[in-house]
Specification:
about 190 residues; alpha+beta; PH-domain like; nine-stranded antiparallel beta sheet; about 35% strand; extended
Amino acid sequence: MKVIGTLFLTLLTLVSVQAQRPTAADTSAAAEAARANIPAAPTTVKAKYEGGVFGYNKTMNGTLTFDDTNGRLLFKNKEQKEVLFIPYAAVTSAFADSHRRRPAAATVASHIPYIGWPLGFIKTKVRYLTLQYNDPDSGANGITSFKLENKQTLDSVLKTLADKSGMTARGQVYVKKRDTASDKTSP
């Protein structure tokens, strides 16, 4: 009988907690206000390519550049040589992502026997710009990501890219609305 009573109280608590979360209107208004305060990104930012574009499998350090003249997001390597680009028109969605990673030095130090605080628990937050693209000219599509320095840079690059590529916000993700007129005419 005690088990059934405990389960009933737990279920009742979960239902009441679910009922107290903010409504979608409250969160969207707050998110829209926060987006309005994000400054435009600089033309060029430091980035690390993490993979995702066909033919470019290795990670590379370099810079992301907004090439407005040619309507594309351009990645250049350390020598400032053009490596790859994604046209603004090909970007279908974009979002900011973050992961907690253990630095390589902490991994190495965690295997050394010593007395003291365990270094294996040290983690840093890594921030990524993740893009989904579909290039109608080449038929290439996929998902790629770029590691950026900090949250402010990531937010400004994401908002600037969304503005330049004509995407709208859906929660924390920016998406490009499909053209329904061309969808109806295609078989």
